[in-house]
Design goal:
Number of strands: 9
Strand content: 15-25%
Structural class: alpha+beta
Number of helices: 10
Order of helices and strands: EHHEEHHEHEEEHEEHHHH
Strand order of the largest sheet: 4-5-7-6
């Protein structure tokens, strides 16, 4: 089992795991046995992660989210909670993707993915590096809020007052937290014509603060 430690907490494709266990007579059977014993966890068909019992490392739900469905980055309430912009604890991991919307129920919890346009997707993503040992992709704070606006069905806001209400009352975000938002990121998203009016109103609110 020591050969599994090299993977750390990074999710492993079946073929990579198979190659890593090639010294066994039947690597496929070995994978099945390791899963049965709980030494590796199956996240979905063809994707595994080494259990914390063996690795002695805390698994990252954000890192797992990136690997579970790609391309994607962690966003929406999950990113807002990560940045302490909303008070509620988020139990599922929410991400956005350019592919069709999807969800997974895994041993590490529930993951869901919302679809956004490709030209909009690539703006406002940052790499979070944790303890110089691993990293994952996450929305910047301003992009996470815009993703909430873009992916919420029937979301219609036509005034700064209504946007303020959405942020303060619906999301429970302190407006002082958005004063330093990067307006360049907001402008670039507006240029994609994705929920253009609503994002223009968000920009106007940020500029007024």
């Amino acid at each position: 089992m020591k050969e599994l430690l090299k993977y750390g907490i990074v999710p492993i494709d079946y073929d990579v795991l198979l190659a890593g266990l090639s010294n066994y007579q039947s690597p496929g059977d070995r994978i099945s046995l390791l899963e049965k014993k709980g030494i590796i966890l199956r996240l979905k068909k063809g994707l595994y992660v080494v259990s914390t019992d063996l690795s002695q490392q805390k698994l990252s739900r954000e890192l797992t989210a990136n690997h579970l469905y790609s391309p994607s980055y962690v966003s929406l309430e999950s990113a807002l909670s990560y940045y302490s912009l909303i008070p509620e604890k988020v139990y599922s991991v929410r991400s956005v993707t350019t592919k069709r919307a999807k969800w997974y129920n895994t041993p590490l919890g529930y993951y869901d993915y919302s679809k956004v346009p490709e030209n909009y997707f690539s703006i406002g993503i940052r790499q979070e590096i944790i303890n110089d040992s691993y990293s994952f992709l996450m929305a910047t704070p301003e992009k996470a809020i815009m993703d909430m606006i873009v992916t919420t069905r029937n979301f219609r806001i036509q005034s700064v007052k209504a946007m303020r209400h959405f942020l303060e009352d619906d999301l429970r975000i302190e407006l002082s937290a958005i004063e330093s938002f990067n307006t360049d990121i907001i402008n670039r998203c507006i240029e994609t014509n994705t929920k253009k009016l609503e994002l223009q109103i968000l920009l106007k609110l940020v500029e007024q603060l």
